[in-house]
Design a protein that fits this description.
This protein is an all-alpha fold.
Length: about 325
């Protein structure tokens, strides 16, 4: 019996290893597909009531396929301009941050963080610049995974709950609920809004003649990232653009960009949306957001923006459960 058990363990480990080696190259597009499906699922539900589940998934997948085609086209045409502009913007941001007399420990951490982000971004972009077929293949995987998740969303949810261990079902449910809250807060809340603000910033930088299309897209990406963080936000990007216009003597355009930024990017949209989406909290939750987003990005690339905060949220849930268990043990004694 022991020999048979050992054989099954070894066989299971081999299967898991082969499965991981098969899936790991395409894990990022699968995570992106699941993320997009989660964001768009309310729309899918409403559309399903009119045209049916499969047709709704087919229509949304068709739209995603079209957008993905334009993304690959834009990536091939503008990636070098975007990379240079974004590196310049990030460098300017960190120079400003390092110039406000931070404590020594915070200064060193910020310096290392700026270097790590730049290196990670360059490596990430370089890996796709010379391998557009790889990018196209991952987009195809993402599109098919997106369709599969939408069509089988209810079955996936039921299967997930069926896998919860009976012995620790309460803890498992808390972890699932914690992850769901984080995803709802990040993905259907501030992430979706941040992407919208990034698009608005891209249009502003291009229309007002601050930069070419590559630089405008880079400004939009930076806006989306800053909008996810506490304290800072997209106002820093439009303010920088307005200051640049002011220094070159285009005062009217600078004023127009200021009005545009205040009303459509920040802070006015945040004031009206905060009641619906929830306020981005400070303190420990703010630290979790910063560490999760930046740490996740450095470790996993762009999908780490989702993985990082989610993993830290689950860790905090486990810590809280452990503290409650210790209190219960003390009470029983």
């Amino acid at each position: 019996m022991k020999l048979e058990a050992a054989v099954w363990v070894v066989l299971s480990l081999i299967i898991l290893y082969l499965t991981w080696e098969t899936v790991s190259p395409i894990i990022s597009p699968i995570i992106i597909a699941i993320t997009l499906a989660y964001i768009l699922y309310p729309l899918h539900e409403r559309l399903s009531g009119k045209v049916g589940n499969r047709w709704s998934a087919f229509i949304l997948t068709g739209v995603l396929t079209l957008l993905s085609f334009f993304f690959i086209l834009g990536f091939a045409l503008w990636i070098n301009d975007i990379k240079l502009s974004l590196a310049e913007y990030v460098d300017t941001f960190f120079k400003w941050l390092l110039g406000i007399h931070l404590p020594p420990a915070t200064y060193d951490l910020t310096m290392k963080l700026s270097q790590a982000i730049t290196e990670r971004f360059n490596a990430y972009v370089l890996g796709y610049t010379y391998s557009l077929p790889k990018l196209a293949l991952q987009v195809v995987v993402m599109v098919f995974a997106f369709y599969g998740v939408l069509v089988n969303a209810i079955e996936v949810k039921n299967e997930l709950y069926s896998l919860l261990p009976p012995s620790n079902r309460e803890l498992a449910q808390k972890l699932v609920e914690s992850g769901a809250r984080t995803l709802h807060y990040m993905l259907r809340g501030w992430l979706l809004i941040s992407i919208g603000k990034g698009i608005m910033m891209t249009l502003a930088f291009y229309i007002y003649g601050i930069s070419d299309i590559g630089g405008a897209i880079a400004a939009g990406i930076l806006t989306a990232i800053l909008e996810l963080l506490p304290v800072v936000g997209g106002w820093m990007v439009w303010l920088g653009g307005a200051f640049y216009l002011y220094t070159i003597g285009r005062l009217g355009v600078a004023l127009a960009l200021t009005i545009y930024g205040v009303t459509l990017i920040s802070p006015l949209p945040d004031i009206f949306l905060v009641k619906k989406l929830g306020k981005r909290q400070w303190g420990v939750n703010a630290l979790v957001s910063v560490v999760g987003i930046f740490g996740g990005y450095i470790a996993f690339g762009f999908v780490g923006v989702i993985i990082g905060p989610l993993s830290l949220s689950l860790l905090l849930t486990l810590v809280e459960e452990w503290k409650e268990e210790k209190i219960r043990v003390r009470t029983l004694r």
